[in-house]
Design brief:
- Pfam families: NUDIX (PF00293).
- InterPro entries: MutT-like, Nudix_hydrolase, NUDIX_hydrolase-like_dom_sf, NUDIX_hydrolase_CS, NUDIX_hydrolase_dom.
- Belongs to the Nudix hydrolase family.
- The chain is 23% helix and 31% strand.
- By secondary structure, the protein is an alpha+beta fold.
- A four-stranded mixed sheet has the order 4-1-6-5, with helices on both faces. A three-stranded antiparallel sheet has the order 3-2-7.
- β5 (65-72) and β6 form a beta hairpin.
Length: 126
């Protein structure tokens, strides 16, 4: 399964993370926002759609820069492609009822993160 996520940075260099809802895979853990790529979408288009659906933020596909990827093997093998972008302002709303926040790298690293998101956060800090 192909999944996309966004490392969105504010002007202070903090990263936007959201908390997965209880009852979902990795429920309660923190992650980069994003979601599954549908069969008729490119990864960038899927990420724009997911960010709009989850946070009410519209991004232009061209503003997304490919960064890293992570893999989760198993019955539900997942490849997560991470993109980066700068937050240019706007109102963010957890439309699915999820908690979200801006975190300095050190604070983000101390959160209970989903395993692939922890890997990707480490790559961002290099």
């Amino acid at each position: 399964m192909l999944v996309v996520a966004l490392a969105l940075f504010d002007k202070s260099g903090r990263i936007l993370l959201q908390q997965r809802l209880p009852g979902k895979h990795h429920g309660g853990l923190w992650e980069f926002p994003g979601g599954k790529v549908e069969s008729d979408e490119t990864p960038r288009v899927a990420l724009v759609r997911e960010i709009e659906e989850e946070l009410g933020l519209h991004l232009e596909p061209g503003s997304l820069t490919p960064a890293f990827f992570a893999e989760e093997p198993g019955d539900r093998a997942v490849v997560l492609n991470l993109y980066t972008a700068s937050f240019e302002g706007g109102e963010l709303v957890g439309r699915d009822g999820q908690a979200w926040g801006w975190f300095a790298h050190e604070d983000a690293a101390n959160l209970p993160l989903a395993p692939m998101d922890r890997q990707l956060l480490a790559f961002l800090h290099r």
